[in-house]
Amino acid sequence: MLRRALWHMDELVALHGRGQLTAKNIIKTCFPDMPKPAVYNGAAINKFLDGIDTAVYKKYSKDTTGKLGQIASALAFSGLPLKDILDAIDSGKPVPTPTYSSSGEIALSDITNTTQGTRSALAGDLVRPVGYEKDGQVLGSELKGFGFSFPGKERIFTNATDCKGNIKTVLDNIDNLCGKAHVRQAQTVMNALSQSGIGDNMISLAKYGIKANEHTAVNFSLSRNDETGDVTIRYSSPEELPFSFEWTATINTDGNVTTTPLRFTD
């Protein structure tokens, strides 16, 4: 739903300006490929999206070309209608992502005044299995998991096996880097380090025939601008991989984020 909204953000803003930002109008705007539901609500959206997932998995369940993984990733992270995703994959073109998810400014902050929920969500992501493969071959079999670099600190690794104990240290470092007064900034930084913040990477990798595991291993380097208070995250590929990628996200003290496009090098 978030990705669909990002594709149609300008239209949603226009609806708001006219005082017409209703559930019905939001669904009609963001889901033009959705059959007219009996009731315009979240349940109708879930039913529609679940139906697409079911149809795709049924059609490609025995496919050995890796197309199922590409489609599933694109459905989850691009927000495009299924037809557009299939057209892009079949033509060999990259699956586009919403304008507002790769540039500009968006707000990714919770409405609460605590990081408890986002800490728990990020902690859950950092113990997920990570890995990559291509043509059935494991890439970077010595991956250590997620690497975190904080100013003046030794590099910290977290993974699903022997580095679980480092997660609290990572979370505490994020809180300290943002400062106790900047809760929304800390929330957004944690979101940006979770699956919701790095999921687009899976689509880019799928274009090159690279399949990600349950989660994508990434190195994170965090820094803070002492004048503005902005926190910048540099995302990059672990050195064990035979390919490289990088992009950045800068989060200001209000929780707004500006990103640079992902760069991939074969």
Major β-sheet profile: 8 strands, mixed
Roughly what percent helix? 40-55%
**Overall radius of gyration:** 19 Å
Overall geometric form: globular
Enumerate how many helices there are, as a single number.
Answer: 12
In sequence order, what are the helices and strands, one letter per element? HHHHHHHEHEEEEHHHHEEEEEE
Draw up the topology in text:
Blueprint: H1 2-7, H2 9-17, H3 23-30, H4 42-60, H5 67-78, H6 82-91, H7 99-102, E1 105-107, H8 116-125, E2 132-134, E3 137-139, E4 146-149, E5 156-158, H9 167-178, H10 183-193, H11 195-198, H12 200-207, E6 210-212, E7 219-224, E8 231-236, E9 244-251, E10 256-259, E11 263-265
Parallel strand pairs: 4-7
Antiparallel strand pairs: 1-10, 2-3, 2-6, 4-5, 7-8, 8-9, 9-10, 9-11
Task: Give structural notes.
By secondary structure, the protein is an alpha+beta fold. It folds into 2 domains: 2-102, no CATH class; 105-265, no CATH class. 42% of the residues lie in helices and 17% in strands. It is built from 12 helices and 11 strands. It has helices at residues 2-7, 9-17, 23-30, 42-60, 67-78, 82-91, 99-102, 116-125, 167-178, 183-193, 195-198, 200-207, and strands spanning 105-107, 132-134, 137-139, 146-149, 156-158, 210-212, 219-224, 231-236, 244-251, 256-259, 263-265. Strands 1, 4, 5, 7, 8, 9, 10 and 11 form an 8-stranded mixed beta sheet that branches. A 3-stranded antiparallel beta sheet has the order 3-2-6. The longest helix is centred in the first third of the chain and has 19 residues, at 42-60. The radius of gyration is 19 Å and the shape is globular. The relative contact order is 0.12.
